[in-house]
């Protein structure tokens, strides 16, 4: 029996001005997890959409269970047994779980009336197969957690009795515990003989679930390797086309004076407790801590998003009354938020509008906008940050995650803020875009900008910071300089395994 369930041969897909896929070969075996990786724009999502019938290839062939197929719609692929679980959920919040799973395919009785009892029994059975009996099939989806909604998405896909499942960045919005639960489900699907295509850029996940990895770059297949045949470093080199042994490059800067200081800063909800930190000119300071430790909450206090319950904030040695983000922008502070789509961008507006959003008054104080000047400003940052977009009037929702993040950065660079707060600056972007962001951060620091960086990735914090503060349960419990960085010590302080220590 042929173990290959899907074979893609010489697939090419063109869009206006772009060859998204160039003569791609790819295959999937029964009961394997085949990971598809590449930088944003490499072609991995396009290949997945060709397999799912969302795109019709311009050239090439697809073979499913040995038979040549030609999918013109996603319905064609579904009928053959190829289903998908997308990063962006496709559920209806005001329908219940059972209605979502069988939407537009509801079982009916002899009179043609929807058989709600059978639909609920079938939905419950699907969830039971995923060890999700705790999910109420009558509950509205809007009341479920993100992880529970994802289980409903998987149950919905399983309702088609698929032979192949495509997971597109499935862990992007999940906690560590929820990720572990998802991996258990994937192993169960794999054991049942379902072939899985797993699109991701989170390299730390690969060895937990993967069997093989295919790397794409600029629409071309670079290679397919077994999961245990290659190191993370080699995978990254295949993805970006260069050796990145020095991923975190930091210039030897001289810090010249305090630009930001908090003194026993607390919030009203008790999530931040008497936090005192200092940020110097030209310095990158990391804020390390577990999720929920108070990192983002401290940043929001400094930027004026949340009201201060106690303590003081100083900018360039002067105490400031933090009243709002608008006031802090006037004080020279900018913040790149963790949730860029919801808080950092107007995704339905253009690249140009987003870049100029906070700096219009700076460049056009009389509110008369000269479009040639505005265009030149936007083009400057598009070129400087290498924002990949056909033109600056393109809506941000059509950009990759990495390019969206660059637009957010360009917004604050156009305002020329002295102090930048980066909350998870590389979350949801591929390794190539991460390297560009790291290079930009280093360049900004060398030019005298000051950065307070929050990250859940400890190697990132250690690699980019000049000093690190450790926060736990809302309190600053440790501080150390670059020469004293120790992964074990920082992790221990984050977890509270050792006594609180301050190294200066």
Total strands: 20
Query: How many domain regions?
Result: 3
Low-confidence stretches: 499-504
Question: What is the mean pLDDT?
Answer: 87
> How many individual helices?
18
Instruction: State the separation between the terminal residues, measured CA to CA.
Output: 65 Å
CATH T-level fold name of the largest domain: Rossmann fold
The computed structural class is: alpha/beta
CATH class placement of the largest domain: Alpha Beta
Give the second-level CATH assignment, the architecture of the largest domain: 3-Layer(aba) Sandwich
Strand order of the largest sheet: 6-7-8-3-9-10
Can you say what the CATH homologous superfamily of the largest domain is? P-loop containing nucleotide triphosphate hydrolases
Radius of gyration: 25 Å
Largest sheet: 6 strands, mixed
**Helix fraction by DSSP (H/I, runs of at least 4):** 25-40%
What portion of residues belong to β-strands? 15-25%
Shape: globular
What is the chains' assembly state?
single chain
């Amino acid at each position: 029996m042929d173990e290959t369930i899907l074979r893609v041969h010489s697939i090419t897909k063109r869009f206006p001005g772009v060859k998204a896929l160039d003569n791609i070969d790819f295959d999937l075996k029964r009961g394997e997890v085949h990971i598809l990786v590449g930088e944003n724009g490499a072609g991995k999502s396009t290949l997945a959409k060709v397999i799912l019938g969302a795109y019709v290839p311009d050239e090439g062939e697809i073979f499913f269970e040995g038979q040549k197929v030609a999918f013109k719609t996603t319905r064609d692929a579904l009928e053959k047994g190829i289903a998908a679980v997308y990063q962006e959920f496709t559920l209806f919040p005001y329908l219940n779980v059972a209605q979502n799973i069988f939407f537009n395919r509801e079982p009916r009785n002899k009179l043609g009336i929807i058989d709600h009892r059978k639909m609920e029994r079938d939905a419950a059975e699907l969830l039971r197969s995923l060890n999700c009996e705790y999910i109420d099939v009558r509950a509205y989806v809007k009341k479920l957690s993100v992880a529970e909604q994802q289980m409903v998405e998987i149950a919905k896909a399983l309702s088609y009795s698929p032979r192949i499942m495509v997971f597109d960045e499935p862990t992007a919005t999940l906690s560590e515990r929820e990720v572990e639960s998802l991996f258990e489900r994937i192993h169960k699907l794999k054991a049942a003989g379902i072939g899985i295509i797993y699109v991701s850029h989170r390299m730390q996940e690969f060895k937990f679930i993967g069997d093989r990895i295919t790397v794409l770059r600029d629409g071309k297949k670079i290679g397919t390797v077994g999961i245990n045949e290659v190191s993370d470093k080699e995978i990254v080199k295949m993805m970006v086309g260069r050796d990145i042994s020095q991923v975190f490059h930091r210039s030897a800067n001289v810090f010249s004076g305090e630009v930001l200081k908090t003194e026993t800063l607390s919030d009203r909800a008790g999530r931040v407790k008497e936090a005192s930190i200092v940020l110097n000119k030209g310095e990158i300071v990391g804020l390390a801590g577990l999720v929920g430790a108070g990192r983002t909450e401290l940043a929001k206090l400094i930027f004026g998003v949340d009201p201060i319950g106690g303590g003081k904030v100083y900018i360039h040695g002067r105490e400031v009354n933090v009243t709002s983000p608008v006031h802090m922008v006037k004080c020279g502070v900018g913040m790149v938020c963790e949730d860029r789509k919801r808080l950092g961008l107007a995704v339905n507006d253009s690249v140009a509008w987003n870049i100029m959003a906070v700096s219009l008054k700076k460049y056009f104080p009389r509110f008369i906008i000269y479009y040639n000047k505005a265009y030149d400003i936007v083009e400057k940052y598009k070129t400087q940050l290498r924002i990949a977009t056909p033109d600056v009037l393109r809506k941000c929702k059509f950009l990759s995650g990495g390019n969206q993040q660059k637009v957010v950065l360009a917004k604050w660079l156009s305002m020329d803020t002295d102090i930048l707060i980066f909350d998870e600056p590389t979350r949801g972007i591929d390794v190539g875009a991460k390297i560009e962001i790291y290079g930009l951060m280093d360049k900004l620091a060398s030019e005298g900008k000051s950065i307070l960086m929050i990250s859940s990735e400890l190697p990132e914090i250690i690699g980019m910071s000049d000093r690190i503060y450790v926060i736990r349960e809302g309190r600053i419990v440790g501080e150390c300089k670059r020469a004293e960085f120790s992964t074990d010590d920082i992790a221990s302080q984050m977890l509270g395994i050792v006594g609180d220590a301050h190294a200066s």
